[in-house]
Write the structure tokens for this entry.
Amino acid sequence: MWKRLAAVALALALGVALILPGSASVLTVNGQNLWTESMARLEDGTTYVSLRVVSNVLAPQAQVSWEDGTAWVRGDGVTLRARPGQNYVTVNDRALYVPKLVQMESGRVMVPIRVLAEALGGWVDWSPSAGITLTVGSGVPGPAPYTQDELYWLSRIISAESQGEPLAGKIAVGTVVLNRVASNEFPNTIYDVIFDDKWGVQFTPTVNGMIYQEPTAESVLAAKLCLEGARMAGDSLFFIAPDIATNFWVMENREFVVTIGRHWFYR
């Protein structure tokens, strides 16, 4: 199920502590100071770290390279891609959401430490006394927290409903589907939400056949991000494209949340 269970920390191979006293950032490995604020910094509650330095700790067997504006980490069992300005990192067949974007600072690619730990099989904990503790594990990502069936159907409904929409709009459509799965008002699986017809057809692509078309690559990416926890459009349960809609019940009876692309979202 996409509703993730609490993960179990991997076997301890190396203790890494990141302590953020005031404006300075200090990272230590087994008590040894490795770098200061140029390699790690805190931004609006998110700890960003140097992709190269942390990858060398988490996956010492891997090679880090810079190719055509993109950072790569390649090694036994891992291929990670991070491009500054994008809101995700890909690792093997997974896609991990980065809400505040992959960043570039003084020539260094900076990624949230929790995203990098997830991507490279590590584990992050926090305490007031120890700061952030990074447990080094396998050096490769764990399995995706969703089934191929869930990815299959979510990517197809996103693709069918979001043609021409930006990635944010595709994630927003996926968010509506997953919000319905989590709601007591709707069925509790992705497939059943998509094909729900208790109160009439919920998604037109299920009757015009578009749901069965091969999804676009960006729709598959959006579905993976949603299933990994990415969300747009808040707690929306409905969306409508007013310029092509023929039924305006949602607009007349539900609370407006946000507009993304040509879709209006409602809770």
Remarks:
- The chain has two domains: 15-135, 148-266.
